[in-house]
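To whoever is covering the structure queue this week,

Two jobs came back overnight. Logging them here so there's a record in the thread.

Job A:
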Amino acid sequence: MADMNQNLTCRQALAGAFQALSDEAVEAGWPEGDVALALAELAEERVIEMAAKVIMEGFGPPPFVVAGGGRNS
């Protein structure tokens, strides 16, 4: 349950800045639908980047392994 509350708190903290960014893009002449889609695509790219980072860190070699340092060398 704590994760849901933390997510809600984070969303509430970002909502104003997100709306301001969206409003600024619309005021600059971009159609509201294009702005919404662009923001969604940027968010999706960020999620993919974060997931890739977690995967790469999770599957990398442990930091204490020394190259070529096997037991039977």
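Job B:
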Amino acid sequence: MSSPELLLQVLRTQMRAAGVTYKMLAERISMSESSVKRMFGQQDMSLSRLAQICKAAGVPMEDVLRAAADATPQADRLTLTQEKSLLANPKLLLMAISCLGHWTLEQVLETYELTEPECIMLLAELDRLGLIELKPLNRYRLRVSNAFRWLPDGPVQQFFREHAVHDYFSGSFAGDGETLLCLPARLSLPSAQELAGRIQQLAGELARLHQSDRRLAPNERDGFTLLVGFRSWEFAAFTALRRTAPSKTTA
């Protein structure tokens, strides 16, 4: 759905909620009802006309714009070019991950050796890349969904594999709320696909809890990372011990 179509759909919904019909609106803005219907149907409306209709319908224009922004479809992944741009600047990658964690500018400044002008420039670059929408007072809205994932085997995933996996698994996983499992199993393909779906559900649950806990004070939350991998795999040292198939001799 395009942005104008979505905006007018939200406006129609809010007009209905306010009990304002096309006929009533036409009378209030001195137009014919057919002209009003045609204007909505053609999705051709200037910003000044939108403001006029909102005022006539008793619907705050800010509410229409905010509802349309909230309903805008969000991407589940960045593009290859966007990920490469993040990796070109480690500070930009840091700011991107902070934004994905819903950190405020103040929290970033308190935690990392970054200046406020640096942070603002990084936020502006993330806005340009399409990861966030930068708002007044250096606030922002994510342009990616709760189901966001890095590109499979993309630049960021490769970076984490090379530089972060060892650091991640070097911990004891013995702290409160921590766990480490490595569970081998022999499964059919349908069973493996079922479990992969369950893992996606787990990721959704993590996103839900993350969203819910945003209402808590910063000192009531800590940074947790869920790193999940599931694939057909055997440790190379064990593979080396496998029996070799007997060679076939020809008569």
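Note for Job B: The chain has a mean pLDDT of 87.

Please reply-all if you pick these up so we don't duplicate work.
Q.
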